[in-house]
Amino acid sequence: MIDKTTGTSPEELKQLVKEKYGEIVLQKKELNEASCCGSTGSCCGPVDYTVMAEDYSSLPGYVADADLGLGCGLPTEFAQIKPGDTVVDLGSGAGNDAFVARSIVGEKGKVIGIDMTEPMIEKARKNAEKLGFTNVEFRLGDIESMPIENETADVVVSNCVMNLVPNKQKAFAETFRILKSGGHFSISDIVLKGELPPALKNAAVMYAGCVAGAQQLDEYLTTIKNAGFVNITIQKEREINLPNELLLQFITLDQLRDLKKRNVGIYSITVYAEKP
Length: 276
Known about the structure:
With 276 residues, the chain is α/β, with parallel strands linked by helices. Helices cover 33% and strands 22% of the residues.
């Protein structure tokens, strides 16, 4: 089955993401922040300033070695995590959000990170070992089929990852499955308002950059609702302004002017929803 957004099969998209994020884990944070998806020179080309990431450094539990500058929000800040909770972090990377969540759940709580990229899991586990954390666990797995038992989590968080999943409906259904009744999620992600030019939508490398794989905002919220969630709320919204020099690698100047004229927007949102 070919993905309607990029013209690429789901298996090819997953392999692309694995390769790109496998490269990213070996780079310094400054390089990752300096390109739209972190993989300077092989994805979207270098940009001289941060495009999507937000600053974690003032949050309790922040671990610099775990911050690769890949997020597009601060979901743990809005997630209403409580001491003793079990938190699952989808697309946990090197452990950034997991360690922030761990500082809130405390010794009596638990944090489980899921990531499909082996180098990310390896780095996260090393970070946890260095910190001496025994209640933070990282599992290699696919968000569309999570290696987690039913009704495990009080809270699920995720940071700019769902847009990388080819089957978002299945991913949210899995999120619903692993949450306890009455549990909730807080997820930061990239969504669209208005249609991107076909050249951008069909660029597989822009998929790894969290743009081509993004859904329309209304479609994204409908996907969450269809998974069974209630009390769906946008906690934060921020427009992402991709640099013209980046966009011009994929579209013409006339297409760029048309894009600006139509006010097509790329947004970072943090969305909350509950499992009844």
